[in-house]
């Protein structure tokens, strides 16, 4: 998942800064900025983010005038597409439902769909080792109890003299 620092680094890199300067602008130490810039430039998430940013077309009015509507696009689109908003489709109460819809949308770019799946993953599946101390103790107690449990008693069948 792309962190805030990685995002700042990528945006600075797209704007034309060197890797070292972009790392410093993103908040990394000046002493380690050169090596960190090189690491981040080779990070697959940063590379994918930069590719998406280069594909975006930004339309901005040349001379904004007071009182007129000015097109100021944000980094991420927050309004649903008009075709999705028709009939109430595309309006979500739960962010998890929104991420699920983006992940399953065939109209979206595959990178955006992957990002939505990554963002949704921790809320759907817990990590393998995740759990508290109580859960770990309980699981260990069950494992020990199953090792030393006695055998089940034999079933007694009453025959009453019949064969």
Q: How is this fold's topology laid out?
A:
Blueprint: H1 4-14, H2 19-26, H3 33-41, H4 44-55, H5 82-85, H6 95-104, H7 110-124, H8 133-148
Helix pairs in contact: 1-2, 1-4, 2-3, 6-7
Task: Describe the model.
The longest helix has 16 residues. By secondary structure, this protein is an all-alpha fold. Helix 1 runs antiparallel to helix 2. The chain has eight helices and no strands.
Descriptors:
single chain, 163 residues, mainly alpha, Arc Repressor Mutant, subunit A, 8 helices, 52% helix, elongated, Terminase, Terminase_Gp1_N_sf, Terminase_ssu
Largest sheet: none
In CATH, the architecture of the domain at 1-59 is Orthogonal Bundle
Cα-based radius of gyration, to the nearest Å: 28 Å
The percent of residues in helical segments reads 40-55%
| Top-tier CATH class of the domain at 1-59 | Mainly Alpha
Strand residue content? under 5%
Order of H and E elements: HHHHHHHH
Structural class: mainly alpha
Q: What is the number of helices? A: 8
Q: What's the CATH topology label of the domain at 1-59?
A: Arc Repressor Mutant, subunit A
Distance between the termini: 73 Å
pLDDT average, as an integer? 77
Overall form: elongated
Q: Any low-confidence stretches, pLDDT <50, length ≥5?
A: 74-88
Briefly characterize the structure.
The chain has 163 residues and is mostly helical.
């Amino acid at each position: 998942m792309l962190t805030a620092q990685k995002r700042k680094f990528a945006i600075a890199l797209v704007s034309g800064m060197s890797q070292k300067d972009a790392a410093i602008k993103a908040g990394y130490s000046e002493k380690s900025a050169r090596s960190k810039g090189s690491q981040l430039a080779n990070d697959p998430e940063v590379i994918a983010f930069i590719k998406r940013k280069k594909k975006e077309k930004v339309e901005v009015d040349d001379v904004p005038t007071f009182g007129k509507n000015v097109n100021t696009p944000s980094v991420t689109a927050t309004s649903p597409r008009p075709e999705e908003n028709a009939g109430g489709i595309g309006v979500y109460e739960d962010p998890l439902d929104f991420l699920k819809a983006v992940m399953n949308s065939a109209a979206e770019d595959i990178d955006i769909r992957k990002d939505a799946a990554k963002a949704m993953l921790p809320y759907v599946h817990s990590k393998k080792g995740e759990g508290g101390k109580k859960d770990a103790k309980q699981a260990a107690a069950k494992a020990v109890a199953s090792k030393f449990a006695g055998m089940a008693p034999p079933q007694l069948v009453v025959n009453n003299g019949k064969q």
